[in-house]
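question for whoever is on the cluster today: can someone run the full assembly for these? two chains, 620 residues total. i dont have access anymore since they changed the login thing
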Amino acid sequence: MIKNELAPKPAEITDIVQETSDTKTFTLTFINPLDQSAFQYRPGQFVEISVLGVGEAPISITSTPSRKGFLELSIKKVGQLTEVIHGLTPGDIVGIRGPYGNGFPFEEVKGHNVLFVAGGIGLAPLRSLINYVFDNRKDYGDVKILYGARNPGELVFMRELTRWATQPATEVLIIVDRGDVKWQGNVGLVTGLIPRINLTPQNYSAFVCGPPVMIPFVIKDLLNLGFREDRVISTLENYMKCGIGKCGHCLLGGKLICMEGPVFRYSEMKNLSFG
Amino acid sequence: MYYIITKVMVKAWLRKLIKQGILVAPTQLKGGDVVFKEAFTPDNISLEFKQPLYSVKSYFLPQEETLFTFRNSSVDTLQEVYNEFPRIFFGLRPCDLKAVTQADRFFGEGFQDSYYYHRRKQTLLMVIGCNNPESHCFCHSMGIGPFYKDGADIFMVDLGSSLAVTAGTPNGKAAIEDYLYFFEKATEEQKDEIILEEYAALSKLNYNMPKDVGPPDFSSISDEFWEKISRKCFSCGSCSYICPLCFCYNVVDRQNKIFEGKRVRTWDSCIFEGFTRMAGRHNLFKNRQDRLKKRFAHKLQQYPEKYGLIGCTGCGRCTVTCPGKIGMMDVIKKFAAEVSTDDKK
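^ ran it for u. tokens below:
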């Protein structure tokens, strides 16, 4: 008997944190403890979340596998389904299936210094890896986090960014495209932060995640600094339906993003039809 | 080993086999079209063996299929829906057969598709060789050929008043040997006749598409060529719907007023603009030319890289259905013509 990958498993919303005006972080626990223990994931993977009767969407996991027993998803209100999800309250049940995708190569970068560059909600998948790195601090070198958003109101995980900044051998820089009256920090694009960090690219691995307009510019700057192409790791997005490599929607340059991605090294990415 | 059954007896044989499952066979509709249809008796099926209008794709990946049902949007009430009727496919063409065996590979790799598996596991594939290929057929240049039989449970050849029949699997063997009283062994002359029929069919196919015009090397096709082709595309998606090797699907939830809901999957086509449109209207394949190019890249370049075969069986159905006359065969021919005029320059 073949397992039916397309049937979601029930999971309860146990907590909701309002990150910004249109982004919430949902904490989920599977109703069936067996589903929970079977759910083993890597940072950078995603799940398919369902509200039956409305639809299903792929959402990246923002919690880290080093903290077990729950699952966190940061969801921005952008469409029909996410709007319904934003209306849910703790105690509501949603359907989850996954994890899918390849995830970040976190074992491989052990011993390296790591640079994270995130834009907007792109911090969500990176947060999984960042927390993983901090939970296994001795395996990794220096950590630098560059984070940009459109305006101060759109910065997500501010509490955690502050906590990360206090960790040893860690630098966190935040920038916004447009400040407001209260904003005292940096103003500009996230690429503007890159020249301000001190690093020797040879022993660094970079993880880049953000909106499609941001990624090519950041990658270009990193390569100019001298980062190795296979050590610049980013994520690609395309419309996805099934998450299991069958429905064909996410096909890009011959690769199914849901199976062979969404995480790609720049050396692989440049061979795809765009990027 | 070939057995011979007279055409008169074929329906009697099918009447025996039908006890094991629903018969799906080419049936002539009132307007004259021949399509694969479920039949409770073999009385009305066509033994003329024209290429049916559609392949058997819809019996394995239905145009719309319910994955599961639920009530009140509750995940607890989720009920998976499986359609597990055994089916006997009679009169499949070699191109249809190739599509089924390729679907087996596709749905069986990685995360296996349980819905496909349930449909496929109880089927008997009875394939008929094409003595008389249609004018849009070009399976020979896609590496299949009119008498291709790898993976068929039973392979049959039309010899005029009788069929030559051979088994390819234990299931097919049982379907013949359990009813051996319908058959006699093929004589040497009849075996020769089979070879002659194949030869005749191949020469007809060579007339449709000369042997040296093979599938083009995709990377050598210029963007200007795609631009020219895409001007004729209506974005109607009929090429993907009719293609036996197009398996892309969309998933939608439907719910009625009393909150009985179901999640269905339906056919989808990469030619549609909405195929890759994401929330916030991001779309990586916004213009028609890119989508058309992607479709052909998948079939001509990525299929060979991944599976070692072209993503086309040469059934020619897209050539028939395409209103802009840019089916696979037309594109291959247009490209070949372009290359030869370039050479002359």
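summary bc i know u wont read the tokens: The longest strand of chain A covers residues 9-20. Chain A has two domains: 9-100, 113-235.
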